[in-house]
Give the backbone structure.
Amino acid sequence: MIDNEVILGPEIINFNPVIKSERFFWINSVWDDYLIDALKKAKAIIFPQHVDREFYCFCKQICPNCFPNYDIRFKWEGKVGDALLFKAFDVPHPKTFILPCVETLSEEHLAITKPFNLPPYPFVIKSARGGEGTGTWLIRDNVEFRKVLKILEHLEWQGKKGFIIQEYIPNTKRDLRVVVIGNNIVSYWRYSEDSFYHNVSRGAKIDKDADPDLQEIGREIVKSFCKSTMINLAAFDLIFRDNKPLFLEINYTFGRTGLGGSKGFYKFLNLAIKNWLKSIS
């Protein structure tokens, strides 16, 4: 039994299998008239973290009350979307260049009016898609740069265009993971002594207690950002330069180790859904 477990009534359409409900639909079931009719009559819809953009937008159109709120997620998708979002909302982040395709780097294209000059090495490249450190590279020289360009070209052949080139912040052996689950905000440091990557799946360690003042600063800036964007389920990665936070990226699916595993996450999720349902009643 999970603390704060909520059981959804028949007026709530639920696609999340870990949430108890009277009307559960498998997210990958056929989108037929029976399902669509149920959605049209629903008071609210609960989604899992894995949901297709088209289906989410369809559901949101016919039933505005949806949890999580993924409007921003699907408006500004992937790492390129994160970068555009941070610029649009004017939040602090490392200096970032957004490139729609590898050809953008060409100096010979007839349409180029202002050639792009690479920043000095080292810098960071992030592909449009990726997670747990995949699609992210620290570029230290021209050899590594050319190697990653080949990978990005291959991704473009698969229809995955776009990448960012980002300022590298040196001497950062940790980042601050700030997780938003409804009105709850949890933070912890992810340490990696010998690696550019701070992902727990790559061996990083978790520290929930260090520098509580900086953690509070991180939580507050994320809370303010979520108030502006209406994001209510996501994990934010921040780094600090001169004790000031910088947004790195947003993860809408994320590891749960720092939350006490799946059990801890489900506890937070049930409480978030319960409070959200009260807010719309």
